[in-house]
Each structure stands twice: as C-alpha cells, then as structure tokens.
C-alpha cells in the first residue's frame, strides 16, 4: 500500500472555464466601484469573481504546460508544433521572452490576486464610526475572506514556484488594474512571498468549513487550505510543519488513497477520496463543455451522483455502480470532531462529563456499546458518570451523512500494572450467532479447533481502540477488527488483529507502542493470546523472539497489556506488530509496494514467487560445495540473517519449523531475508508431551533439519533444502558452526536467557492472576503454580540445552571435540578484539567454547592513540588478523601499546539538522599530527558495510587540520560557505536514533570508529536531546553534547555545546563509577588535568577531555578524583563545581 503519511495530499485540478453549479453562475460584476458592494449578497459576488479566474487558459494550458509537460508527467500531444506553440516551446525548453505561456501564467495569477484582494478589501473596510461598511454575519464574513485568501495564497504559491520572488500585493489598491504588468515595482524575496502564502492559508484553514453542501461544491475547504499549506512548507523544506499539515488532512477522516492508483485519473473517480479540491468538466468531441460536476473529496464507501428525482447532485451512502442511484439522498458529509471533558480511564469518584463539537449540528450518544444513530439519546448537557460506562458520541446534521463516532471508557475499580487496551464495539459485531466474528455460528463442525465456526471466517468489523498507560489516555482510534491466528482460534480467548483504514478515519496507528523501535506508525497490530501457549506461560513467543534483539533477524516487537472488550475484562494479551510488508518497510526503509513476501512452500503473501522458485531450482540442480555455485547463492540470500534465523529455530528446538510458520521476503536489488515468528513450540513448548516438557533440550533439532530424512510433517524436503545443501560447502559450514558457537557463548548463555524470561514473567505476574481468574472456567486445571511450572520448564531447557546442542554439532559435522578459548586483553581501553567477524570483545578476560577443525578468526583493533603490538599464548604473531585452529583449551592474549605513528580522529558528526538549518549529514575528520596525511583510497562506512564512501586519489588532510565529509555539498555550503575543506558526497544517511561511523585505511583495516545514540534527559526543567557518542578511537570516548543552531556562526566547532557532568544522567555502568577514582590519580595525564583546572578556573570534564584529547570517562574520573582530594567541590545545581585549589600569585 502507498503510505498516505508520506503523500503530500493536495491535488488541485483546475480544469474548466467556469463551474456548473448555481453558486458560480451568478452574474459577476465587471469594472465596478466599491459602492456597488453594499450587502452580503454583493460581497459574495466579489468572491465569485475571484473564483472565476480559474480559467481554461491559466489552469489547463499554462500551469499544465510548465507543471507537467516540462516534466515526465505528461506530453503535449497535438498534430503539429503550431498547436499550442507556446506549450511546445516550454516542453522543449525553448521558451523565450515572447512565449505566451509564462505571460499567461503571470497575468492570470495576478488577475486572481487582484480580485481576491479586492473582495477582502471591501469586506474589511470600516466607516468613520468603526463599523464595517458591509454588514454581514461575522462567521460568513470570515469564511468569504478565508476563501479569497485561499485563492490568493494559491496564486502566490504558484508565482513563487515558477518565478521565485515576485511583486507582493495584499490590497487591490497596491496593484490597481495592472495585474502584475508594471514590472518597475520592486520584487519581494521568495521567502517573503512564502511568508504571505503561509499567512493567507493559515487564516483560510481556521475559517473555512471542513465539508460542504452539494450546492456549494467547488468552493475552498479547510482540507484544501491545509493541503496547500503542507505543500508550501514542503517546498521550503520545513519538514516538521509539512508533516503536521499532512497529518491534519489525513486525520480529518475526509480523504484517503484510492485502492488503485490509476483511478485518480479516471473520469469515474474524478471526485474520489484522494482529491482534496477539484473542479471537473465534461467536453464533447469538439472540446465544448457540456457538463461538469464539482464535488468535495468523499470518504470511502460514499458516492456522489445525480438524483433521478430532482436532477440535482446529491450524496449517497451506498454506491451503486451500473445501477440507478439509490433513493436515499444526502446534501453532503458531516464530520464534526467531538471533545470530551474527561478522557476516561479508572475513576475513583463520579464525574460530570461534557461533550462539545466545533461546528453546528447535534450530538447523540449511547452507553450500550452501539454506534450512535440519529435516534440515539440527544446530548443536552453534562452526563453523570458514577459507574463503569462506555460513552460513544457522534455529531449529526439534518440530511447529511455523519462520519465517525468518538468513544471514551470510564471504569471504576480496575487495577493493572500494565498498559490497558480497551476495545469497544457493538456486541452484535462480535457475539451474534450469525454475524459475530467471535461466535461459533451455524456452520461449526464441532470439536477443537471448531472449523467452520464464524471465527474461522475472514470477517472484519468496526471497533474503537483506546490505549491507557498510567491511567492516562495515550492513543485512541476507530479501526477494524478480525480474529487472528490459526489453531489458537479454538481457544476461548482469541487473538485479534486491528487494522487502521481510511474508512474508519485513520490510515495508520501513529503512536510509539513499542519502546525499542525507531518508528511509531503501524497499519496493523495484533493482540496475541500467546497461541498454542495460551494459559501456559502466556509469554513464550514474545519472550523467545525478543531474545533476538541485536541480531540480524527480523521479528515482531511486543508489549504485554491488560485488555477489556466493552466493559468486560478480557485478560492478558501480547500486543505485537503484525508480520506484513509494512513491518518490513518500517524496519528496512523500503517501499512496501515493492516487497515480495512468501510463506511456507513459496506461497505468495505479497508479490510474486517466480524468483524464489528459480533460486530453489538452482539449489536442487547444483552442487553447493562448488565455490562458484555458493557465491551465486550468497548473492541471493542475506547469509547472516539466514544463519542466525536457522540457528535460533534449531537451538530453541522449534519443531513447528521448518515446514510451517516461515515467512521470507525481499525487494528488488536486495537479498532474501527470513522473519522469526510464532515460536510457541520452542524452549520445551510442546506442553502436551511429558517427554518434551522434561527432555526437549536433548532433541537433535539440527539433524531434524539437515539430515534430509523427513520424520514429521514439519521437516519436508522443500523446507530443509537450503540449509541442507549449504552446509555441504566448507566455507558456509565453518561460518555456520562458528556463528552457532558465538550465539551460544553470548545470547544463549543460560544466565542471559533465564534472566530475560524471568524479567518478562515478573512484569506480567500480577496481571496473570487476573487473567487466570477470567478464563478459569475454560481451563479449570490452570493456577499460578502450573503457569510457573511452564516458565520453569523454559528455564530448565535454557540451562540444559548447550551441552546437547554442542554434541549435536559434533555428531552432524563429524567433529572430534570442542574446547574453551580464553581471550585476554590487559588494556581493553587500548583496543579490542573482533571474534569471527562478529563479536566485539573488549574485556580483560572472555571465554567461550569453539570446535576443532573449524578455525576461528581474531582481529585486533587499536583505539586512537594506540596500536596493536602482537598476539601471545597459543599463537605468537604480529599480524593484526589471524586464524586459529583450536585443538585444546587455549589462551590467547592481544597486546596493545601507545601509538608511535600518525592518527586520524572522527572528530564530529552531524546526523540530524533542524528544519531551518538543514546542512545535511556530515562527518568531520581531524588530523592531530603536525604533518599532512594522505587518505587516498581510505573508506568511510556506517554500520552497514554496503554503505561506503571511498576517498578519491590525492585526498589529504593538513597537519592539525580538518576535513568535512558531506552528504550534500550544496546544503552544507549554503550554511557554511567559508569552509572549503570539504569532500563528498556520500550516498547513505546517518540514522537519527543511533548509528556507527567507521574509518578504514586503504587496506580496509579499521582506523577509527564512532558509535552514537540519542537520549532525552531533563536539564533545568527542559527536555534536552543528548547525543551519546562512543568513539572507539578514544580511550573511554563517551561524551555528551547538545546540537545548537549555529545561525550566522561560521565555525562548526561552536555549533556543538558539550555537556559537563552527563555522568549524572547516564547509567553508571556506561560512564564508569567512583571505584576508579584512585586509578585516576595514577593517570599519567592527571597532573596536566589539574593544571587545566587551575588555568581555566573551571572543573569542566569535557574541557579536560578536549584539551587532552582523551575519552570522557577518563576525564570524568580525573574530576571525581580531584573532588575526593579536595581540589574541587561537588557538582552544584547550576552544573558547575567550586574551585578549591588555593590561588598562587606571583610577587
């Protein structure tokens, strides 16, 4: 699906000389004086006159010529060049000062400006007593002015886009009747023109109606103003304002995307939901206008047509293509947002609830969960809420179709430590015997899982969702609801899928439901009942998949929630992302329309399976032990994702895999990736088997997958093919075994796994008590003891799995043994070890088990200011990168020493610029050495190896100089024109939520590395974004900063303000602790640090850090040591320390 949030939703089709509706068929005043306009009616004629300039010449010929024909969007057509010669010249970029099209645009736009400004002038003119000269209702006056200012804003927007800065007239008196032809008048800057456009459109947005009756179709609406304002912001690169205005249009519920993109251009959809403001026309073969219909954008499943009774345009709530229009007719669509004086939640006392709207009409409401109708209770005043009550309200207007209802939930006496999800819908939608999606219905076959029951149908019903956290409404939206899952549909508590759709008012759920994600927009969500694990641990799949955080595996995030349906407690659910093309698009920043997703045996979810079937055929027909064939395969498959996905499934003993619950995807130009989900069989998950509950950890799942012998429905030949053939290649075999060992030595360590499981269980324990009480009648054998027993079985599996998993590797790959490898590094602040191109080891001592005849790789990387010396222990070598065969328990030590050579430093990173100072991403390199350094052929990368910038030949950095590597030279130099030492452009972006920047020399040996993230902290009562940058090129390397807006500042360094004492707001295990204070006094630079404090009279951690070119932690320990020694005082509330060192005065 196209993402509506990313669509600038303002489409104007000015396509007729006049509008066919009565309101635009008024006699329009010609050259008249102001005395003609004396009342509301004549003022309206002035407004009509402004609209009338929307003529064929200006909007079809002229603007189309420069807006579409000059791009790739359209061609001129016609039989000869002489047919619209001016348009032809524009299309071929041959326009001259004599070309008619640009002058038409200029003149017609200024003509509309003149008429619109004239109409505004007469409506705001006052007499000597201060009264308006034209008496009229104030709301009508503001609307008329808003329409004119909308038209004027539109004209100036088009002028700015086509001509840049132009003459700026906001009163008819300014321009008179010249219509912009007097070019001797001074031009305003383009910024001034856009400022006027914004002013006009903001006024229009505040004073135009959201919807229109049929008789007024074609006039400007609030949505038209908001859409054009969004586009205005967009062209000025005011990204946040543009996004907000787009959201105002999207969230109005009046507009949406056509399911088929081509329908936008179809005459049958000329007034469709994707058009915000439009004039339409119909011509005969000779080009004569014979009919036109001007219709506002309509919500989904609502149509417009001509009444067979009255012959007038009308609105229908039931589209009837190919048939006579329905007899139930409406004047228009009514969307009135309602506001509640209290947002609901858990109450401890009665409240008086008020409901208000921002327009005319009446409000009706229900308290029985049903959707309000015209006959529901009329709201006449405050509602007393003294017991649990669900209030659903909706605005109505006579002879209009009302849009969406609004819902709030008021509960008494509920408690939960978890977020609460309230679902509200007419109980008929869920529980009616024939219609309800939760009911067994008339076709139930009987017996679990009750095939044929209603809940096996793919039925969707409307629902309202509310998400409360800490008893505060955080998010609410109308949505669609379906029953979700496979055999777990047979449980009494069923999994539910929630869908955001335009027909319900929101095309996305926009809220950060999941703490660990960089994105917060979801087209669908799942409330999962824990699948086959229901009423056992109720957390198994969520706990297992979240264990993969930091891996190369795609998986669904989760949050455990307490749930209510209407006023009934419905138990504990795991709120999950839904596995779909949208999940993939969000995680990998790809177009969801380009995602091919397959499931199980190449069954199509999205896209086409031909490419995958061809790859599978290649596996069948070729020997993967041959290097050429193997290289072809790894060009098609993301091999790290593939390995870790299968290792996870095998280690957890998920025997519902590999022949079931598998999904894999790709986009054009990328590789196939696998998604981990539905792991309910994992970690002793087959609860119906006593053997599995006690001995599943012994099962040889590796043999189950690679033996080639089908033993159950879950390991058919097609499902095991890829891994089975790949392990025949020695390179992949070694990669796979070492990655399996890496995972067992880190992620799958028993202490890691059990602590992870228990933390999730502890978080949900109290809610689980309520959950058991709710569903005890369905599963009477369940109690807290049985639940904990299943959790304990998961932990027992985690504790006992590793020896068996290692023996399975020995058995399946015919290996002799495995041994403990211990890595030592006495100076981890000098450097670190990369193990198997995968694990970063920066500890004094680390150990893990590895296998004989499977060489491991070790790569020593020094921090900036240090260099690798040699390896000792099992192997003596001065090579930075080595391979080691393990035949016994082994000890290997890496040695680093202070550097005697030249070093470069990644000195500063800009990864998120403010909208009004957008320099683009850039990276500054610093050469602290006196001599120039040639970096020709060096490589700069982010955390993705495929993203790289190679420095061209003859690139060097001057001694003690800087070089800025930019993503966009034009953007950077527009704000820093005085900086000449730049190079670029690199073609990848730096993530605003955390990334790495790595510098490699021409031999691809890493020279410096920076990892950064972002936190929000409180400084002086204000939220402040703190960039945490861990520079692997500094000994400790963590420092904080606040990015400032360097308006007019020519020095990049001053655009960053370093934050002293960030140690007070960050985790002590990151920043270091007071236990290191004694070591700080022994630091060889400690005395120099003290002298800096004396000289500057300031105990600044970041100041010491920058002057001594050391890491933040190291500088922080020195300052803490000075405090302990009585040289400086403790940190005060203003962020400073008192200097206690006695002053020394020279006599």
Radius of gyration: 35 Å
Briefly note the structural class of the backbone. alpha+beta
* Share in helix: 25-40%
Q: Multimeric state of these chains?
A: single chain
What is the residue-mean pLDDT, rounded to a whole number? Answer: 83
Uncertain runs are 1-32, 55-61, 1014-1077
* Largest sheet geometry: 7 strands, mixed, barrel
Work out the helix count: 27
End-to-end separation in angstroms reads 80 Å
What proportion strand? 15-25%
Number of strands: 52
Q: Note the overall shape.
A: globular
Query: Strands of the largest sheet, in order across it?
Result: 18-19-20-21-24-27-26
Provide a descriptive summary of the structure in words.
The protein is α+β, with helices and mostly antiparallel strands and 1147 residues long. The strands form 15 sheets. Strands 18-19-20-21-24-27-26 form a seven-stranded mixed beta barrel. A hairpin with a 3-residue loop joins β33 (831-835) and β34 (839-841). α2 crosses α4 (100-124).
How do the helices and strands line up, and which of them pair or pack?
Layout: E1 12-13, H1 40-51, H2 56-69, H3 85-91, H4 100-124, H5 138-163, H6 172-175, H7 190-207, H8 222-235, H9 239-250, E2 277-278, E3 282-283, E4 289-291, E5 303-306, E6 313-316, E7 332-334, E8 338-340, E9 345-347, E10 351-353, E11 355-357, E12 362-366, E13 377-378, E14 383-385, E15 389-396, E16 400-402, E17 406-412, E18 420-424, H10 427-431, E19 461-469, E20 472-484, E21 495-499, E22 509-510, E23 521-522, E24 524-528, H11 540-546, E25 554-555, E26 558-565, E27 568-577, H12 581-588, E28 596-599, E29 603-606, H13 610-621, H14 627-634, H15 639-651, E30 663-666, E31 673-676, H16 690-695, H17 701-706, H18 717-726, H19 730-745, H20 750-775, H21 784-812, E32 818-824, E33 831-835, E34 839-841, E35 845-851, E36 856-862, E37 866-873, E38 881-884, E39 890-898, E40 905-910, E41 922-926, E42 933-934, E43 939-941, E44 948-950, E45 956-957, E46 962-966, H22 969-975, E47 982-984, E48 994-1000, E49 1006-1019, E50 1022-1031, E51 1038-1043, E52 1056-1058, H23 1068-1071, H24 1077-1082, H25 1086-1096, H26 1101-1108, H27 1112-1124
């Amino acid at each position: 699906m196209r993402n509506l949030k990313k669509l600038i939703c303002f489409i104007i089709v000015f396509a007729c000389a006049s509008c066919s509706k009565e309101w635009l068929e008024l006699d329009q005043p010609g050259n008249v004086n102001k005395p003609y306009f004396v009342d509301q009616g004549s003022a309206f004629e002035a407004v009509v006159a402004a609209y009338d300039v929307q003529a064929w010449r200006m909007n079809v010929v002229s603007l189309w010529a420069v807006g579409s024909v000059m791009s790739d969007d359209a061609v001129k057509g016609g039989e000869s060049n002489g047919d619209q010669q001016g348009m032809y010249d524009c299309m071929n970029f041959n326009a001259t000062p004599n070309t008619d099209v640009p002058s038409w645009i200029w003149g017609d736009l200024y003509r509309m400006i003149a008429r619109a400004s004239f109409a505004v002038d007469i409506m705001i003119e006052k007499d000597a007593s201060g009264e308006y000269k034209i008496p009229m209702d104030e709301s009508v006056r503001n609307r008329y002015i808003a329409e004119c200012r909308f038209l004027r804003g539109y004209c100036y927007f088009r002028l700015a886009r086509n001509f840049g800065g132009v003459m700026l007239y906001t009163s008819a008196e300014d321009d008179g009747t010249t219509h912009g032809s007097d070019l001797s008048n001074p031009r305003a800057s383009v910024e001034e023109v856009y400022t006027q456009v914004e002013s006009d459109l903001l006024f229009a947005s505040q004073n135009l109606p959201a919807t229109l009756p049929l008789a007024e179709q074609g006039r400007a609406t609030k949505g038209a103003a908001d859409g054009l304002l969004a586009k205005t912001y967009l062209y000025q690169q005011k990204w946040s304002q543009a996004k907000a205005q787009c959201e105002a249009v999207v969230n109005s519920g009046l507009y949406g995307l056509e399911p088929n993109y081509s329908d936008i251009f179809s005459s049958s959809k000329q007034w469709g939901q994707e058009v915000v403001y439009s004039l339409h026309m119909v011509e005969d073969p000779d080009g004569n206008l014979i009919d036109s219909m001007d219709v506002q954008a309509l919500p989904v499943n609502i149509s417009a047509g001509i009444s067979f009774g009255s012959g007038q345009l009308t609105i229908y709530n039931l589209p009837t293509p190919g048939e006579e229009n329905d007899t139930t007719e409406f004047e228009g669509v009514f969307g009135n947002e309602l506001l509640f004086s209290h947002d609901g939640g858990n109450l401890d006392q009665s409240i008086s609830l008020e409901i208000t709207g921002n327009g005319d009409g009446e409000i009706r409401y229900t308290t029985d969960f049903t959707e309000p109708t015209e006959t529901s209770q009329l709201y006449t005043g405050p509602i007393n809420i003294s017991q649990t009550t669900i209030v659903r309200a909706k605005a109505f207007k006579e002879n209009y179709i009302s849009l969406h209802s609004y819902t709030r939930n008021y509960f008494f006496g509920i408690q939960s430590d978890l977020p609460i999800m309230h679902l509200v819908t007419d109980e008929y939608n869920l529980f009616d015997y024939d219609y309800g999606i939760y009911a067994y219905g008339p076709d139930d076959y009987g017996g679990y899982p009750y095939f044929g029951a209603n809940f096996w149908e793919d039925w969707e019903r409307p629902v309202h969702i509310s998400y409360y956290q800490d008893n505060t409404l955080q998010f609410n939206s109308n949505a669609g609801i379906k029953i979700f899952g496979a055999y777990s549909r047979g449980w009494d508590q069923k999994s539910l899928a929630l869908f955001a759709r335009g027909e319900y008012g929101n095309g996305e759920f926009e809220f950060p439901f999941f703490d660990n994600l960089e994105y917060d927009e979801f087209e669908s969500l799942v409330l999962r009942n824990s699948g086959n694990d229901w009423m056992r641990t109720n957390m198994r799949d969520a706990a297992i998949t979240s264990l993969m955080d930091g891996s190369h595996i795609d998986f669904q995030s989760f949050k455990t929630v307490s749930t209510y349906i209407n006023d009934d407690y419905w138990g504990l659910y795991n709120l999950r992302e839904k596995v779909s093309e949208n999940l993939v698009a969000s995680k990998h920043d790809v177009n969801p329309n380009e995602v091919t997703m397959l499931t199980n045996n190449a069954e199509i979810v999205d896209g086409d399976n031909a490419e995958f079937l061809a790859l599978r055929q290649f596996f069948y027909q070729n020997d993967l032990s041959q290097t050429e064939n193997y290289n072809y395969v790894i060009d098609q498959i993301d091999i790290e994702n593939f390995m870790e996905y299968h290792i996870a499934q095998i280690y957890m003993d998920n025997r519902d895999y590999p022949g079931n619950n598998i999904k894999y995807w790709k986009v054009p130009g990328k590789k196939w990736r696998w998604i981990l989900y539905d792991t309910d069989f994992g970690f002793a998950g087959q609860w119906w088997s006593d053997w599995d509950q006690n001995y599943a950890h012994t099962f040889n799942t590796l043999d189950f997958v690679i033996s080639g012998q089908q033993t159950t429905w879950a390991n058919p030949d097609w499902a095991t093919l890829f891994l089975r053939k790949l392990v025949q290649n020695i390179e992949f075999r070694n990669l796979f075994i070492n990655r399996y060992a890496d995972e067992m030595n880190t992620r799958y360590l028993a202490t890691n796994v059990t602590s992870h499981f228990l933390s999730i269980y502890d978080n949900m324990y109290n809610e689980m008590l309520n959950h058991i009480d709710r569903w005890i009648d369905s599963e009477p054998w369940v109690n807290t003891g049985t639940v904990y027993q299943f959790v304990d079985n998961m932990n027992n599996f985690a504790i006992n799995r590793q020896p068996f998993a290692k023996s399975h590797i020995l058995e399946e790959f015919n290996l002799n043994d495995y041994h403990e490898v211990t890595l030592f590094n006495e100076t981890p602040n000098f450097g670190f070890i990369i193990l198997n191109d995968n694990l970063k080891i920066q500890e004094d001592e680390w150990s893990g088990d590895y296998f004989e005849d499977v060489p491991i790789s070790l790569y020593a990387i020094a921090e900036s200011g240090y260099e690798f010396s040699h390896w000792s222990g099992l192997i003596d070598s001065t090579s930075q990168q080595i391979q080691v065969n393990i035949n016994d328990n082994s000890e290997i030590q890496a040695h680093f020493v202070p550097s005697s050579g030249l070093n470069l430093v990644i000195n500063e990173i800009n990864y998120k610029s403010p909208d009004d100072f957008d320099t683009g991403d850039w990276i500054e390199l610093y050469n602290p050495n006196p001599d120039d350094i040639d970096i020709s052929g060096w490589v700069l990368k982010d955390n993705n190896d495929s993203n790289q910038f190679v420095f061209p030949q003859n690139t060097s950095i001057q001694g003690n100089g800087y070089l800025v590597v930019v993503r966009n030279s034009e953007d950077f130099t527009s704000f820093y024109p005085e900086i000449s030492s730049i190079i670029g452009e690199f073609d990848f972006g730096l993530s605003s939520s955390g990334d790495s920047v790595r510098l490699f020399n021409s031999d691809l040996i890493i020279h410096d590395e920076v990892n950064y993230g972002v936190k929000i902290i409180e400084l002086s009562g204000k939220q402040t974004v703190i960039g945490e940058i861990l520079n692997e090129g500094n000994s400790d390397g963590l420092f904080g900063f606040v990015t400032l807006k360097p308006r007019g500042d020519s020095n990049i360094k001053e655009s960053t303000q370093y934050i002293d004492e960030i140690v007070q707001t960050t985790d002590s295990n990151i920043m270091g602790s007071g236990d290191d204070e004694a070591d700080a006094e022994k630091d060889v630079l400690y005395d120099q640090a003290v002298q800096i404090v004396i000289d500057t009279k300031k105990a600044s951690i970041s100041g010491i850090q920058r002057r001594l070119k050391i890491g933040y932690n190291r500088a922080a320990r020195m300052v803490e040591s000075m405090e302990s020694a009585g040289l400086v005082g403790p940190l005060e509330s203003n962020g400073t320390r008192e200097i206690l060192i006695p002053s020394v005065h020279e006599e």
